[in-house]
Amino acid sequence: MSSTFILLVILSAVGIAAIAKFSPSLAIIAQFTYPNAKFNAIGASYLKEKELAHLINSKSLDDLKNNIISRDFHVEGDTIEEMQKSVDASLVKILQMAKNDSPRSVRKFYDAYIKKIDARPLKNVLKAIVEEKELPEEEFFSQEIKNFVDSIKKASRDEMPAIFSMHNMQDVWKLIEKKALFMEIEGAIEKKIIQEIRAVPLPKSCRHARDLFMKYFIDILNLKAIFRAKYMGMDLSKENLFGEGRELSYWQLEHFLKIDAISEIISLLEGTSYIKPLRDALGEFEREGVSALERALDRHFLSLVGGIAVENTMNLGPGIRFIIEKEFEAQNLRAIIKGVGEKMSAEEIWKILVVEK
């Protein structure tokens, strides 16, 4: 047997091993080609000033419905509440579409994200429990959360601890029992959702995009919690925070908790991507309050997920950017529906919208 033949055999074996090693990744990349092209093509009209201005100037809810021309959001109903619920239903349909178009290996990510959409109505139910009021009728899109709330509705107060424990919500029940501030209960819900999204099993090629997205999300939640607590003159402990994120270390967050002045906290963000958007929003903060800083953080978050989409364009990145943009579009539509329905001025409505810059 010639040495040339032996060399060819060795090279062939190396080539086969290389293909076997990389073909799963190549196969996954191929599966993202169609959904990512679709996500990139759809766009986000209701984050743009021109499209939003057209809606804000609606004279009535009927006029507003006629002005919402979208292939994504279908707004129905005659009251503020009915129209807002139709926006939520449209958002979940969009997420389901993104899930169904995506590879099977990442679909659980979208299932976990739907629970994030359900967090708002879930908080309304928990608030009623805290205040010992009749539970409101809310629509839920995650079957797991729907089952949890249905069980609560049928239970006596004595039976609730077992139900909360069964659904891994015992930390939330402990806060309810000790009559904690509702902000702490809201934080516990957010923490549970963060844990679930971070725990979703994903292909190795998709984990970086998911983990980066969640770390930025944690940074944003931590800053919002700190700013709101300082603005309201409330004490906030490190237990109320959401862990360490992408740019803010735990020791930095603990240091921020000891500072009273929001402007001083912002100055200490030098070296992070958060300093410029927050510094630019200080004038609005002085006129409007903490909501101006929250809007600035939301706009920056949109920019950050845009970067994740570019950096991870062959996997989950565009899907993450797509669902975040659609969630903010839905938030804007709900705000405009409320504003038009309650006869708020255009200036007042602009103050509660997240607009891309």
Describe the structure concisely for a colleague.
This protein has 357 residues and is an all-alpha fold. Helices cover 71% and strands 0% of the residues. Residues 5-24 have low confidence and may be disordered.
Characterization of this structure:
The protein has 357 residues and is mostly helical. It has a domain at 104-202. Helix content is 71%, strand content 0%. It contains 17 helices and no strands. It has helices spanning 3-42, 49-56, 61-67, 80-101, 107-130, 143-154, 160-166, 170-177, 182-199, 204-232, 250-257, 262-267, 275-280, 282-288, 291-311, 317-341, 346-350. Helix 1 (3-42) packs parallel to helix 16, helix 4 (80-101) runs antiparallel to helix 16 and helix 5 (107-130) runs antiparallel to helix 9 (182-199). The chain starts with a helix and ends in a 7-residue tail after the last helix.
pLDDT averaged residue by residue: 89
Helix content: over 70%
Number of strands: 0
Structural class: mainly alpha
Cα radius of gyration in angstroms:
23 Å
**Principal-axes shape call:** globular
